[in-house]
Write a structure and sequence with these properties.
CATH topology of the largest domain: Rossmann fold
Shape: globular
Radius of gyration: 20 Å
Strand content: 5-15%
Low-confidence stretches: none
CATH class of the largest domain: Alpha Beta
Oligomer: single chain
Largest sheet: 6 strands, parallel
Structural class: alpha/beta
Mean pLDDT: 96
Number of domains: 2
CATH architecture of the largest domain: 3-Layer(aba) Sandwich
């Protein structure tokens, strides 16, 4: 049965092969799988997005991302979703943004909302939607278990990465890599401090978005810790990210948030690179201590683990990624869920 799926991204982050955010990368992978298998994929996302399916574009994000900008973007998304539903015979709407409740469509096709972030970051009305045929689910078991008991969830679908595309024969060069959104909860200042303590070079890549808290964090905590051996590279495309991860001795993930997943940790493992992380949320599910990395509790332990990571076998890291984190496994499970929810609509 051919499906028509309307995917709705977070309004302030572009979707495409070089997307920075995890939710945007998952959406891009699902869009690609839908098109590849002959389904109709429609994507509501901001200008600058590059999906494989049909883009219904909303305005590009402004330079300053404050509450007014977020409210305006949500209103534009709400209008775009309504236009798409009027134009196409949509079988299911799939929402990915943390603010999905702001543009939840009225009663109609079934809606699936993926909770990409910690449940406590969503308002109560988002987790308990009054709209009929609206289904929520998460992306890891730890996230699922952290939801309030009265929140109805479908079983989680774990994230995945393109393990085959991440294969590379790059030679290890001894530096530590760190990669992600540059914001306070990601804790990259701890990675920089640990690398200095271990006397190791560290390359930090990622984007500083236009939120005041993100910019202030970069200026106060990241910039002062940069030097000749600890450098900031800015955002990277897929190929540059693959080169960085493959050549690193390890990936540092010093997140302070209860992570629901970590695509960059999965990508590092697919590149044959172990992960040194704080055991925040689902990171404890991803890292196998002593085999694919280490879980640490502070900067001192992180520094020691960065040095120790060089003895771990890259082949074991890659084997774990192949076994557990393939994008094909993720997309096939989503397509099964799309079919099941769409069939329930047809039976009604």
């Amino acid at each position: 049965m051919s499906l028509t799926i309307l995917s709705v991204a977070y309004p302030l982050a572009p979707v495409g092969p070089d997307a920075v955010g995890g939710a945007e990368q998952v959406l891009a992978a699902l869009d690609e799988a839908l098109v590849r298998e002959g389904h109709c994929s429609i994507v509501v996302a901001c200008a600058g997005s590059r999906p494989r399916g049909t883009l219904v574009a909303t305005p590009a994000p402004p330079a300053v991302l404050d509450e007014a900008a977020m409210a305006a973007a949500a209103a534009q998304h709400r209008s775009a979703v309504a236009r798409a539903l009027d134009r196409w015979p949509v079988d299911l709407v799939h929402l990915h943004g943390v603010d999905f409740h702001r543009y939840l469509p009225p009663a109609g096709p079934p809606v699936l909302a993926t909770l990409h972030l910690p449940p406590s970051w969503y308002p109560a009305e988002a987790l308990r939607p009054a709209r009929p045929r609206t289904y929520l689910h998460g992306v890891s078991h730890s996230q699922h278990e952290s939801c309030p008991p009265d929140v109805a969830l479908l079983p989680p679908i774990g994230n995945g990465v393109p393990v085959e595309r991440l294969a590379t024969g790059a030679r290890k060069r001894g530096f530590v890599a760190a990669l992600g959104r540059i914001c306070p909860e990601k804790g990259f200042h701890h990675a920089l401090a640990a690398a200095r303590r271990a006397d190791l070079a560290l390359l930090l890549a990622g984007e500083v978005f236009g939120y005041a808290a993100h910019r202030d964090y970069f200026d106060a905590e990241i910039r002062p810790r940069l030097d000749r051996r600890r450098r900031f590279l800015g955002p990277l495309g897929f190929r540059a990210k693959r080169r960085l991860l493959a050549a690193a001795r390890c990936l540092a993930v010093p997140s302070l948030a209860p992570e629901t997943s970590s695509l960059v940790a999965m990508e590092a493992l697919a590149c044959g690179t172990p992960v040194v992380a704080f055991p925040s949320g689902a990171l404890a599910e991803i890292v196998e201590p002593g085999r694919t990395g280490f879980l640490v509790s502070d900067e001192r332990e992180m520094a020691a683990a960065m040095l120790e990571a060089g003895r771990l076998d890259p082949a074991a890291c890659r084997e774990a990624a192949l076994e557990r984190f393939s994008v094909e496994r993720m997309t096939s499970r989503y397509l099964e869920r799309y079919r099941a929810l769409s069939a329930s609509r047809s039976s009604r």
